[in-house]
Design a protein that fits this description.
heterodimer, A: alpha+beta, 4 domains, 12-stranded mixed beta sheet, 7-stranded mixed beta sheet, 28 helices, 51% helix, globular, B: alpha+beta, Arc Repressor Mutant, subunit A, 5 helices, 55% helix, 13% strand
Chain lengths: 869, 116
Amino acid sequence: MKDSSSTYQPPKAADRFLRWFCREELLEEVKGDLFEYYLLERKTKSEWRAGISYWFHVLHFLRPFALKRKIQDSNFNIMYKSYFKYAWRNMQKHRTNTLMNLLSLGVGMACFIFIFIYIKGELSYDKFHNDSDRIHRVVIDLFESDGGILPDATTPPALAIALQRELPEIASSTRVFPKWGRKFLIGANEDQQYFEEELIQTDSSFFDVFSFPFIHGEPKTALDAPDKMVLTRSMALKYFGRENVLGETLTIYGSNNQVKRISAVVEDVSEFSHFTFDFLTRLNFNNIDNNWGWWNYYTYVKVNQDTDMRALGGKLLGFYESARPDQERYAPIYTQAITDIHLKSNLKWELSVNGNMDNIYIFGALGVFVLLISCINYLNLTIADSLKRLKEIGVRKVFGAHKKSLISQFLIEALLTIIFAIVIGGVFAEALFRNMGDVLGRNVSMLQVENLQVFLLIGLTGVVFGILAGLYPALHMSSFKVASAVKGIVSKSGRSAKGLRKTLLVIQFSISTIMIVGTLVVFEQLKYVQNSDLGFESEQVLIIENSRRISNQETFKAELERIPAISRASVADGIIGGLNWTMTVGTPNGVLMNYVVTDPDFIDAMGFELLEGRNFDKERPTDAQGGNLIVNKKALSDLGLTMEDVGKPVPMFSNGDSIINGTVLGVIEDFHFTDFKSEIKPFAFVYRTNTKDYSYIKLNSTNIGQTLTQIEEAWNVASNGAPFEYYFLDETYASLHVQEEKLSNILLYLTFLAVFIAFMGMFAIANMTIKDRLKEIAVRKVLGASVTGVSGMITTKFLALVLVANIIALPLSYYLMSEWLSGFAYRTDLGPLIFTLALGSTLLVAWITVGYQSVRAALINPIRNLRQD
Amino acid sequence: MKGTQLGEFEELVLLIIGVLYPEAYGLNIRQEIITQTGRKVAIGAVHSALSRLQDKGFVKSELADATHERGGRRKRLFQITASGKRAMEKNHELRNSLFNQISDLALKGLNFGETN
């Protein structure tokens, strides 16, 4: 009788799987039982549930009794076991070689892992926002006097509002107003107040654009009232000792205290964000929504899904033109993807020091280079080693080994080495991460979850490289003829192996030389930057922040100048080399001019030399009004003035139709106030009598410690309780070249490692060559050759290889480094010294590595090597 | 002697084979274990135990005729061998003798609170 249930079929894949692993003789009864069980299950359960249950029982047959015996003890398995055994024996037999192989491969992999994870971090900036591909920053370039443009990250406050109103593609927009060097005195009560820097003022739409993860509170309501405040987890802990502080209040102290209600707590801002904050409050300036004149806001927008950014770019230009009817020329307005800002944007006023795409390429190339060098090393050593194993291979072939089985044997040996090397590399890389946090500028660990995945990926890459590195010797050695192999005759193939070995050595040394030259040039450039005359006396200048808190700055300055170690004190509203403002000077053709507001003592204190004209004068009140400037030479010439015009009123500002005159009171020499990549730009000093942000103190003593104590005493008397926070002007200048500093550090480490690996390779190859030629050396000595003669014969060959490598590498590195240096407006010369040094050092180290061994070989009593056979 | 020991689960399977005689095979042995002891076991576990019992010589088996509800596949029917019977008896005796050696005192000691 036909049973309807017999039409049910258990999952086919499960059956196939069972058939694959289950022993033939058990299969029938097992399948029968399972099938019967399945039919029973189907009576009460759905197909899906029964299928799951069927799979469960099939998987339960994965027990030793049911598995096919083939997997356990077939010929196949025994062979593989023996391969592992031989590989292990071979590794132990050549301990030095094995160790060198593992070390150089391990170091190479460590570099690769290190750089890979570092680059991955750099590339992941700002990707944590939801829809990060739809978030953009809108920026407008400024015009410079010569018609050039000055890329600038800041925008007027009216822009964000107008964009959202006029362009339907913009889903939401928000303004970010950063600290601009200010400090905020914030406290939960009178007793517990701290100075805070990381306070951003923004719009209620901040969280429509950005998505910083919330711990407490809601993004929708976080900033919907002017008195609301958002803070980070660590700030909540700092002020209240707990995380959930919703509803608490914090006061921002100032001329009029502002009480803020805490509406949300967010996670501390990720280090992979191009801007950071501890507090968010609402913007509370009047009349900014229609203001197109203040360039100190950052505008971020989130566009709608599937917006064509190029089309939007075109619309932006038109929009800006219609929004600014008062403008004669329209500076380009454009968008930057938020994920590109960290690596690709290098505008004036970036919110933090950005990375540099060029450096990423350089690091990436270096990582691959070092890995390449170590793989070449491995290849080289294995090939050299293989020539010694001809007899073993011959015997194997006589016993009936196929080409295939020889290949698998060598591949297994290679993979075993690679796996060991990956482990060593992983340990090295982790050690690097732990020790180089400050070089990288952030903490990295392979043990972080997201990096473990990367590690697996690298492991896979390593295995692929391992197969490549193992395949050549495997194919090469298994192709020997049996008879010649047993006799130890290496015919053409041996010679070709030696040729390949030489080529590989040359490649290694070329890469090493290029890296040496690169490191030297980067260091030279940094030294040049650090030692260059900036155009004024920048040493021993102390800057004290929070100076606005001093009510009478003139008295404070007088007090300071009573300290013998202080030669001059001054105050200013900006930091040369750091924070300064820009204005447009000159009419009809405006010059975009950087300026700092100072007092009359500044010029003297900083050691600026007046080429023409006079300094500001306290006795002449008009100096502190209107357009009375002291400018650098560049500014003078850009304004179209000459030294003759100094001291005479010239048209300087246009205010609608009226033109206001100003006077250049004095001219100073050009000086550096930006990084050395750009040309010196126009700069002006302006004198005003208001209270200023920073105190500048010029020291004339080397006893910094004692002087600082004295300054602090004077500060504490005058500062109304503001903290004594200071730094030296040199530090500001040093921070302009952070990227180059980072590059030079990493380059130094990598070059050292690359050279180390290359020379380890050369050491091993030389070692083998000499061992091969011990008899020849002995015969030569018996026939009267001297020690120097014999060792010279061997050393010269290796030195020749290094020379060839240098001949290839030096012109190449000259080209590469000229390219790199051309990115600097002020740069060091690529003198012959650097190249001589690279050539000399590679030759010297090669000579020591090979020379030592060859002399030792030449010193051996010839009898010892001739006595056998 | 290694290999002739009767494990706890094996003993259970062996007993059930006896109970189900002559119709004992993998699936109904499992079903019986579930109904008699409430222990949920996988089919694979039963087969594994059967294979061990057979290796030790405690059971023998033969293939029965094909039936329709198994998709035409034959089932393997198990029955206890003489040595299997002996192993069962030995286990049974050992357990009984051990149980009998437990003194009254030890058993009484379990009766908390009940005094003579």
